[in-house]
Amino acid sequence: MKKIVCFHTIFAVLLLLLPSLSSATPEYARQAGRQCRDCHVDTMGGGLLTDEGKKFLDELRLEGLYRPLTEIQKIIRLIVGYVHLMTAIMWFGTILYVHILLKPAYASKGLPRGELFLGWISMALISITGVLLTIARIPSWKAFYTTRFGILLGIKIALFLIMLLSAVIVTLFIGPRMRQQRTAAKKADGRYSADGLSQFDGREGRPAYIAYNGILYDVTGSKLWKDGSHLKKHNAGNDLTELLKTAPHGEEKVLAMPVAGALTAAPVKTSRPFHERLFYFFAYMNLAFTFLIVFVIALWRWW
Q: From CA 294, how far away is CA 156, in angstroms rounded?
């Protein structure tokens, strides 16, 4: 029953987005740089069209410009367009936030739940509203390769679909591999490498460990290490041996914390696994695609 109601609701919205019959306006004459008599039999405009007028009207229809709407349809398209734009800002903002403030290396430790949720909600809304707006502007498949608007829209859709595919791969395949990597960071003898220690930064629910004189201490339960940060100056997941020398307190504060393991003196450097390298590739690809999509949108107004 719910599926039927949902289908009827979507069908009703699509009907409202479909264009209704209407007469041409002087706006089209200004766009073409012509007078009313060039397109209409009646020199005052309106009524029957000349052959040139019919040709011009067909060109407008192919370009998605001839879409006369009722007041209700205009309101609906305005709302859909507003939601589409706002969710795009949220999604692109998340990508820029990860790259500029968090850095991809932070996300590689484990996908932040908040950013992941926001990203998927944004992509779902962009997909739905994008389909509705495309139906409202593109009258036929031919318009995708015969008009400038359709070509640019096709490029934007292609870029979005690639980004969507990369998000699916990261969420379903790369994400679980990263969680397994964090779980395997601790060796059987209780020793951690520097890379293994960096996985325990106290963020997104992860434990917070620090190293001092080769020993790892668990500061997760300390109020002074909330979210893996100490006074917003020092971060968990690092060796703080040298920094403690400049601290206003002695080593007794650290020694009082539970011991979590030991730090390897000479960690063996290994190349990044394939899934991690693929994650970085997708991260920077999506950043580049973000700028490309914004450039395509700018071309709609400038070209």
A: 9
